[in-house]
Amino acid sequence: MRIQPALAEEATAIAEVWLRARRAAVSAIPPPVHTDDDVRSWFREVVVASREVWIAEDGGGVVGLLVLDGNWIDQLYVVPERTGHGIGAMLLATAKRQRPDGLRLWTFATNVRAQAFYVRHGFVATDATDGDNEEGAPDIRYVWSPTSDAAPAR
Question: Counting C-beta atoms within 10 Å of the first and last residue's C-beta, which end of the chain has fewer, N or C?
């Protein structure tokens, strides 16, 4: 398994990981609000072009993605058949190395598996919304600080 910066020509493969992972997680999170073609365009024209994107790659291609936007983890997804095999943890470790002063992210309130994952890796819930996102679904903000001084959720 290699974790490496994404190349522009990998945008379609990265979008496919996102699409597959989101489809598989629909029981825990809302379905995407954009078409597959819109998602592919967004990855090609916005995400890979203007954000810091890392991929997990094995001999068979891209199996995970991490998108950093400043000190925010904007996206972290792993293909469904490889979830639970440490790929997300490797991508998260990359994020911590790239942003040693701290990280933030949002996760859907219904995604308890993601919440447990982030808590296991030192993140603390600090805020919640009633659905201030495209999907209109409640979400929770998590913060990781190397000094573990994040304020607890209210």
Answer: C
DSSP state of 17: H
> What is the chain's mean pLDDT, rounded?
93
What is the tens place of the pLDDT at every residue in 91-130? 999 999 999 999 999 999 999 999 999 999 999 999 999 9
Map tokens 């997680």 to a residue.
Answer: 25
Contact assessment for residue 100 and residue 117, using Cβ atoms and an 8 Å cutoff: no
Flag whether 44 is in a domain: yes
CATH number, domain containing residue 34: 3.40.630.30
Dihedral angle, C-alpha 23, 1, 15, 71, nearest 10 °: 100
Split into its structural domains, the chain has a count of: 1
- Which residues face 106 on adjacent strands? 141
CA angle 43, 83, 128 (to 5 degrees): 70
